[in-house]
Structures are given as structure tokens and as C-alpha cells.
Amino acid sequence: MRFVIVTGMSGAGKSSVLKMLEDVGYFCMDNLPVSLVPKLTELLSMPNSSIDKVALGMDIRSRYGAGDLGEALDQLDERNVAYEVLFLDAKDNVLIKRYKETRRSHPLSGTGRVDQGIAEERRLLVPLRNRADYILDTSRLLIRDLKREITSIFVEDKQYKNLYITVLSFGFKYGIPSDADLVFDVRFLPNPYYIEELRPKNGNDKEVQDYVMQNEKTGQFLNKLTDMISFLIPNYIAEGKTQLVIAIGCTGGKHRSVTIANALYGALEQSEGDYGVKIEHRDIEKDAITKAR
């Protein structure tokens, strides 16, 4: 039997993950009292049980203390019951935004502010986070990205990669991404905007890519950038970092930044390192939208 405990920060996506697991054949339960966890595994492990995949959702709403669930896991360890802990996390500002959008209060905030409840919950869940087999930061994950990760881990049994890298192109005139960990300015490269036939195109078009990449400085910059990122990644993993946003910016976020971001993404994807990677182009269409107004 494969037994998965889904826990983590309230608002990080536990309900969505349980639905995804249910869709792929897991028997899912949510908010089961902690005291029943050992008994449940005992029943499901009986020879006549037809259930071979179970997912149990537990968070602060389950009215457990982190220590209570920790004791339940200790009991499972003593009985040699195999289990996996999936811990869902997200940045505080993302959790606050989600609570505001749903107009719900945090289970630990009471009559106080949401950020106070989040801080208290994060403190209480440190022991569980440290015991997790998988830590998924959902801050920048779309539903399709989250589903792909869940399928990879719990259906295809692929090796899980705790660090998820987002390579993000942007335009400085629209502001630096607030969640960027590393920001690189490529406005020193030749600008295709001043080439009439290239102006309406973007960094996903071969003509723009060829124009930017033919410059000697571009190759030098990419080599140095890739080398530095390759050095940083294992150190971030060792530190326990789960999300890394690498932002590449030019003036409008349409030509140079998109080209360089695509090149860096390709280099990281081909390296098959101990991380997942995706690419986003935040401002690639904004120039066209602005002109249409």
C-alpha cells in the first residue's frame, strides 16, 4: 500500500492536490482526527483490503497540534508502516493574496490579521516540514504545473526534485518582478526594437534570436550567466531552497530579455540537474496591448 500524508500551509493547495490524487486512483480523506491515523493504516494494511493507494489530508484545520501528528508518525515508524509526507508551502504574500481573494479567514488568525495566523502556523509546522519527503512550493505553480508535479511523483514515480526554477523575462518599464531572487539586466545588448522589420516580432521569433545572439557580448554573457547559475543551484539546494526565480530584464520585456531567458532555460533544461525548470515571459504582449489602446 502506498500511503501519502498531504500537509503544509493552509491555502497552499492541499484540497487541489487531494482531488488530483483522487483522479489517479488514490483513496483520499481529509481532516481525519490524528488519533485515528495509526488505526486507519492498520485497517488498510489487512490482507483482504482492496485499497492500495491512500492519501490523507491534514493541516491546522484538522485541529491537531503539530506534535500530535508527529507522535502519530512516530507510531507508524515503530510499526514499520511505510508512508510519505508531502508538504505544501507558499510564500506569505501569496497566501495572503489567496485568502483575500476567497474572503476567508486564516484558521489561526482569529480576530487578528491573516499574516499573524500564517506566521503562527509556519512556526508550528517546522517539525513536520523537516520530516517531509517532498516539499512543493506552489507560489508560482499554475494548476497544470502542480498536476504535472503530482503525477510525476505519485503516478510515474520519477525522482522528485525539491528545487523548482522559474526563468522569467520582463520589461524594466513595467517594474521588476517582486518575487525575483536573481535579477539580470540585458539592456546592454543591441536592441532589435530599432530594426524596423524586427520591431513587431519578439524573442520567440528566430529572426530576433539571430539578431541578439550574433553579438559577441551575448555569447560571453550567456556563458558567464550559465556558469554562475550552475554554481549557485547546488548551494541553494543544500540550503533547502525550494523556489528560485531568475528574472531577465530588458526595456520592454519583448526582445532581448525573452531571447536570453529562452537560451538560459534551454541550457538548464538540457543539464538534467537536480531541479525542475519552467519559463515565463511576463511582459511579452504588453507592448502590443499598450499600442492598441
Keywords:
alpha/beta; Rossmann fold; 4-stranded parallel β-sheet; about 290 residues; 2 domains; elongated; 9 strands; 5-stranded parallel β-sheet
Q: Into which percent range does the helicity of residues fall?
A: 40-55%
- Strand ordering within the main sheet: 2-3-1-4-5
Shape: elongated
Given as residue ranges, the uncertain stretches (5+ residues, pLDDT < 50) are: none
CATH topology of the largest domain: Rossmann fold
Overall tally of domains: 2
What structural class is derived from the secondary structure elements?
A: alpha/beta
Series of H and E elements: EHEHEHEHHHEHEEHHEHEH
Mean pLDDT: 87
- Radius of gyration from the CA trace? 23 Å
Given the structure, what is the number of helices? Answer: 11
Indicate the CATH class of the largest domain. Alpha Beta
Organism: Dorea ammoniilytica
Protein name: RNase adapter RapZ
Domain RapZ C-terminal: 164-285
Domain RapZ-like N-terminal: 1-156
